[in-house]
Amino acid sequence: MTAGCGTAEASSSGSGAASPSGAASSTPAAPAAAAPSVSSASPARPSPSPGSTLRVVGLGDSVTSGYHCDCDDYVTGFAHLLAKQDDIRVHATNDGEAGSTSDGLADELEGTGDDDRDLQDDVAGADVVVITMGANDLAPALDSFREGSCDASCYDPQVAQMQTDLGRVLDRVQTLDHGHARVLVTTYWNVFTDGDVARHAERSGYLAWSDTVTRQANAAITAVASAHRATLVDLYAPFKGDGSDDPTGLLADDGDHPDAAGTALISRAVLEAYEEH
């Protein structure tokens, strides 16, 4: 390759279905510390041989798939940034699917159908796998909150189940790629809607409650990433700082998904985490 001429290609096999997946991250009533940006025990960065192509695969929900944003998804954005920065060829495949859950993705990674096998082949051939997953698992908690209330006894079991199912996802990813791929897992800024949309659409107490649930979810995601020696990518701080920043300017008009600026921010956060280790 000529210096400074890295190239990136992209493909997408994720569904564009209009079932939203919340984005997640939060602040509990007693705010916990924000999740660290990267776990410390991740595998070494893949080093493609001259003339070869680094293969990046994105897994997850509508945040991964780029739903509700007329822009390149963050997986494609990361691939372009990486190609330019490291002067390498990068191919991105986005297998994110709107509405996907951790349990559903784990089943697909273990399944025997044609679509399941296509997904498994993508993962098996990947050098880098980037995952954003878990928000949709917690949708029942939001339903309960809207119907009356949902305290820790309501959402804790759902977060625990999400943690178990996300662990299944990473187990299967590592089995399929034989431990070859560098795996990065993101947290969320909010597992549900946030910003101005949430302030106007939801009842009193929603923002504090959703932040609490998000922080719990992020802690679970952090634990899974650490247990699997995956690199953790913190999206909470880039969107919300210590929890006091308003993310409205980074969100699409549904208040749930990132807009072009938010998507670009995620791409940069993934690149930063990738380059740090």
TrEMBL record:
UniProt feature coiled coil, ranges: none
Bias (Acidic residues): 105-119
Which superkingdom does the taxonomy of this entry point to? Bacteria
Q: Which GO terms describe its molecular function?
A: phosphatidylcholine lysophospholipase activity
UniProt-annotated stretches for the region Disordered: 1-53, 93-119
* Compositional bias annotation for Low complexity: 1-44
- All copies of domain SGNH hydrolase-type esterase, residue ranges: 59-264
Protein name in UniProt: Lysophospholipase L1
